[in-house]
Amino acid sequence: MCMVRAAELAYQGEQTIEATAREWGFDRVRHHHTAFRPPFPLQDTQAYTLGGRHMIITAFRGTEPAELRDWLSDATTPPWPGPGGRGHVHYGFAEALESVWPQVLTTLKEFRDNDQALYFTGHSLGGALAMLAGARLHFEDPKLTADGVYTFGQPRTCDPGLAKEFNSAFTDRMYRFVNNNDIVPQLPPEPVFRHVSALRHIDSRGAVHNTMPLIGGLLDRGRGLTADLLAPASDGVRDHFIAAYVTALEKAAEQRG
């Protein structure tokens, strides 16, 4: 639950983030905010890093599904070379991370003064950036390899080559949550883009599965779908909001007792 809460916190203002960090026992906070000009509707990257005695968390902010409409549906975007020369990544995601990466990396090196565990998290666009941040750190600066990457409603982010390399490097350290009918993880389209493994699918009853059952998944996805899957009223969008992830995972935790 702590990682989905950290992803949710990324949508808040700086004062709220700092107050919550103190409540959680973190004594250092660094905000990251940069502007960039991709050929897409988004123009900035926002994230924060919390530093404590035993743990460091960097959380990337996401965005509304409507703002990702053209971005996620475009399969013609030129690829961006993957971290450490491994495969390729979605151009927009890569540029969004590139704009803020120097700030993040400097902060991680500054805060990690007690061999703390390091985690990346994010929702939606933020999930894509969290996954890429984990890949960049591992393949470009392995002394700072993340102990865990948690994403919620992450879109497809990279090609099959990087996905394979990432899956091998992050066994038991990557957790990619998808809430029921959430449409964003189905974009951008295959086969150009591919998901990394470690799926945690939350079904309509709130149970968490390591795979998406074929029949059950199709039945779930058949509920509430509209002609425009990114329309505000669609089931695929309702299931994408970060609040829906928090509620679903709280329900799952209650069911586990």
Percent of sequence in beta strands: 15-25%
User: In sequence order, what are the helices and strands, one letter per element?
Assistant: HHEEEHEEHEHEHEEEHHH
Q: Which descriptor suits the 3D outline?
A: globular
Got a strand count?
A: 10
Number of domains: 1
Ends distance = 14 Å
- Main sheet summary: 8 strands, mixed
Whole-angstrom Rg: 17 Å
Report the CATH superfamily: Alpha/Beta hydrolase fold, catalytic domain
CATH architecture: 3-Layer(aba) Sandwich
Q: What proportion of the residues is helical, as a percent range?
A: 25-40%
Return residue spans where pLDDT drops below 50 for at least 5 consecutive residues.
Answer: 214-227
GO biological process, one term: lipid metabolic process
Pfam family, one: Lipase_3
Domain Fungal lipase-type: 59-190
InterPro entries: AB_hydrolase_fold, Fungal_lipase-type, Sec_MonoDiacylglyc_Lipase
Your description of this structure?
With 257 residues, the protein is an alpha/beta fold. It has a single domain, classed as Alpha/Beta hydrolase fold, catalytic domain (Rossmann fold). Helix content is 38%, strand content 19%. It has 9 helices and 10 strands. It has helices at 2-9, 14-24, 69-73, 91-111, 125-140, 160-169, 214-221, 235-238, 242-256, and strands at 28-35, 44-51, 55-60, 80-81, 88-89, 117-123, 148-152, 174-179, 199-202, 208-209. Strands 1-2-3-6-7-8-9-10 form an 8-stranded mixed beta sheet, sandwiched between helices. Strands 4-5 form a two-stranded antiparallel ribbon. α1 runs antiparallel to α9 and α4 (91-111) crosses α5. The protein is globular and about 40 Å long. The model is unreliable at 214-227 (pLDDT under 50).
